[in-house]
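We modelled each protein-ligand pair independently. The example shown here corresponds to the pyridoxal-5'-phosphate entry; the chain sequence is given first, followed by the ligand as SMILES.
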Amino acid sequence: MVTRDDDLFAQVLHHRIRDLQPGDPIPASIDLASTYLLPGTPSTHHQYGRWTNPVWDELEAALGLLENAEVVIFPSGMAAIASVLLTHLHTGDRFLLPSDGYYTTRILAEKYLVPNGVEIELCATRDYAARDFAGFRLVWIETPSNPGLDLCDLQDVVARAHAAGAIVVADNTTLTPLGQRPLDLGADVIISADTKAIGGHSDVVFGHVASRNAEIMTAVRDWRKFVGAIPGPFESWLILRSLESFEVRFDRMCTSALVIAERLEQHPAVAAVKYPGLASHTDHELAQRQMTRFGSVIGVTFADAATAERFINDTPYIVPSTSFGGTHTSAERRARWGDAVADGYVRLSIGCEPTEALWSAMKGVLDSLA
Ligand SMILES: Cc1ncc(COP(=O)(O)O)c(C=O)c1O
């Protein structure tokens, strides 16, 4: 059976090729121009490099197909987040964001929104279920939360937040559109740090905003144009190139993650495993309902920091590094950044290594820790 995601991804791979003429290059070209030939009254699409770029057009069309929405690209996930927050929150507005989500979003809000009269409130992702959204201008969702991997019910939160008059934005970085589609569940906007699985090769920092609301997208596109937070043509091209293998990479990563999460849970050296795909996850039923894949990130808790560090540093196919979603399996103790997780909590990002080779490397170290 061909799923909708299968069909969409096939279109992502082929859409530009349909319009090629004999002799045209198959891949998109990189256009480095900062300015374009522009005689007389300006009427061409490309005029100046801060406003448009042919590679941006290619990438926004491809990501737009994938998201089934309009897309504006940015030079980082944070630039994408800032474009939405700083265009939609003003003096007197109230902003709800997760206390357990990606910490830099909170720092951005505290440093640049609060001094401008925006009131922020924090709520743990699981507590969104009981939260009253009355009076909020904007509600931010991150499910699964990063790094704790807690969930909230997107459809329920969106419906209640909309009834209260709020705009709903979801950070969909961890799952990507191939793992979860917040826009289909009613969210107004998604942001994605494409630095993670969509870029996937640990060689480019990037982001995008997607929405089916033209007014929101005009505000976001204008922000990029006038603030000048624009992605470089080469970085845009790298993401376009990465997109070609994204579905294959993500499939391998999510498939391996489920196998490895199940085995980690059985291993005596491991104190606890958190992964939405496991029956033991508190919100596994919700995960099955709202996610199409369970993702590539696993939360693994060891007895203490020292044991966790040995697992991270001694496993041959684990790269000790921050970030996730790359082709190489990577891991870090999130307590080292001050996240509210146990000292022995490891965020493990499963990469594209053959599953059994990866598990065998992990098991060798785990057996020595048990
Ligand atoms: C969930 C999430 N959102 C946003 C970001 C920010 O992305 P970037 O580092 O590309 O600015 C990150 C980065 O780690 C992230 O994990």
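Residues 76-78, 102, 146, 171, 173-174, 193, 195, 205, 207, 323 surround pyridoxal-5'-phosphate (CB under 6 Å).
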